[in-house]
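Reply to dn_fold:

You asked what the input looked like. This is it:
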Amino acid sequence: MKEYKIAILGATGLVGQEFLKILEERNFPISDIILTASSNSEGKKILFKGENLTVKEAKKEIFKGVDIIFSSAGASVSKNLLPDITNKETIAIDNTSAFRMYGDVPLVVPEVNSEDLKKHNGIISNPNCSTIQLVVALKPLNDFIPIKRVIVSTYQAVSGAGNKAIQEMYKQIKDKLENKPLNYEKTILPQVIAFNVIPHGGNFLENDYTEEEMKIVNETKKIMNLPNLKITATSVRVPVINGHSESVNIEFEKEFSPEKAKELLSNFKGIKLIDNPKNKEYPMPIFISGKNDVFVGRIRKDTSCDNALNMFIVADNIRKGAALNAIQIAEKMIEMNLL
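and this is what came back:
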């Protein structure tokens, strides 16, 4: 089997660390690997396959001869660096929002639109974490009966904002339990997250939606090739360490039974159905953290609309919502002889 020279851009972050963990778990065919990050992390040692690797500052010349770049160092870094170092030989799979809505950049979830990988010009975008788990669940249903409208409310874990946000939550919880006054001068999240929920993800836009909400809307349309899909989103940050949840209402062109939906979802690659409400069995983030699949449950008729279903979707936002999906893109490209 052919082996590939790999580079991790943003190797010291949560997603960068997850890249390394999954590459080792899946025994990805690697001939050489380069770890890069900002100048602040230069010289740091990271263990990979029993070897301590040294992190290098991300500079253009370092990526010469690299086959695949897994990138998660922030949108500004990607925009400044990737266009100059990618081509048909050096592919970047970018986990930032930098290029997602560019017409000539594929935005890919392998279970949903792997054929779009054939259209790349050196950069492939990994979608937003909330979008990935949503479209995996929508795909088998839309293939059976076309979707008219989607209403999604997300319950997003603090890990989505990075390790500093997790530490911020821990401190707030500790202060609250010790009856100390909460520090309302936040550094990472826009409001106190301990014992709270925050209906705010990214900046607010002119339409009063947030960037996070509009990512879900626009990315879902692009990935599923449904430019006229009616879809709306509300994103909420919740005091959960890891694992995003979504409450989703889907209206179809025709009536769709919950039983058929369960059958389709349970047979679709990448989905695990957990739907036994009588025994209190349903997807929850505390049990899915560290798992690869998208978990779906609470599938039921919408009592207010004849052709609609409600469901609950949960996935590990750092794993399937970021690092794993990017590595699955690379694996799919190898399978399709695109690498």
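The radius of gyration is 20 Å.
Hope that clears it up.
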